[in-house]
């Protein structure tokens, strides 16, 4: 079974976290779900390099990410593939960004995060964020 390595940014502006809604997908279990922006790690990249590249490509967000910003890793088995997802805390000084691939976004306070329909692999990250 395919196993993919993904990085995701928990973008925090003041006391709110950026939640991005995915578009329709060939897999129903990912269609229209909320997620943290990011994407697949490419060969030769470190996780933080991959996240910086994805945030720039996908959102126009230019930000320095380092291993010190690591939050948690989730391993999740979807019906068609397995994902290892590394998440990082990314504090931004502006809420501006360009929404290039997602269909919607919301900035939520931590305690409201569970009001959204998240991608299944994101549940442990949402849970941990709500406890902090
Ligand atoms: N970026 C991101 N991806 C997530 C999260 N949760 C989650 O299950 N994923 C999954 C969805 C995708 O299968 C994969 C991310 O890769 P991607 O964004 O490049 O994949 P995609 O399906 O949009 O595009 P592709 O396979 O056609 O290239 O990880 C999350 O919070 N952020």
UniProtKB/TrEMBL annotation:
A single GO molecular function, which one? 8-oxo-7,8-dihydrodeoxyguanosine triphosphate pyrophosphatase activity
Q: What class of enzyme is it?
A: hydrolase
Alphabetical keyword list: DNA damage, DNA repair, DNA replication, Hydrolase, Magnesium, Metal-binding, Mutator protein
The source organism is: Methanosarcina horonobensis HB-1 = JCM 15518
Known EC number: 3.6.1.55
GO BP annotations of the record are: DNA repair; DNA replication
The stretch of residues making up the signal peptide is: none
The UniProt catalytic activity note for this protein reads: 8-oxo-dGTP + H2O = 8-oxo-dGMP + diphosphate + H(+)
Boundaries of each Nudix hydrolase domain copy?
1-131
Q: Which Gene3D superfamilies match?
A: Nucleoside Triphosphate Pyrophosphohydrolase
This chain's protein is named: 8-oxo-dGTP diphosphatase
Q: What is the similarity comment for this entry?
A: Belongs to the Nudix hydrolase family.
What cofactors are annotated for this protein? Mg(2+)
């Amino acid at each position: 079974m395919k196993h993919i390595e993904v990085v995701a940014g928990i973008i925090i502006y003041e006391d709110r976290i950026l939640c991005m809604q995915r578009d329709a997908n060939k897999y129903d279990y990912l269609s229209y779900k909320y997620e943290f922006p990011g994407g697949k790690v490419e060969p030769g990249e470190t996780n933080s390099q991959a996240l910086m590249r994805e945030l720039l490509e996908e959102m126009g967000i230019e930000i320095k990410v380092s291993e010190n910003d690591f939050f948690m890793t989730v391993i999740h088995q979807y019906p068609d593939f397995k994902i290892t997802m590394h998440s990082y805390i990314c504090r931004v000084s502006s809420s501006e960004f360009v929404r290039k691939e997602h269909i919607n976004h919301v900035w939520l306070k931590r305690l409201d995060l569970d009001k959204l329909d998240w991608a299944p692999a994101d549940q442990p990250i949402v849970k941990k964020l709500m406890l902090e």
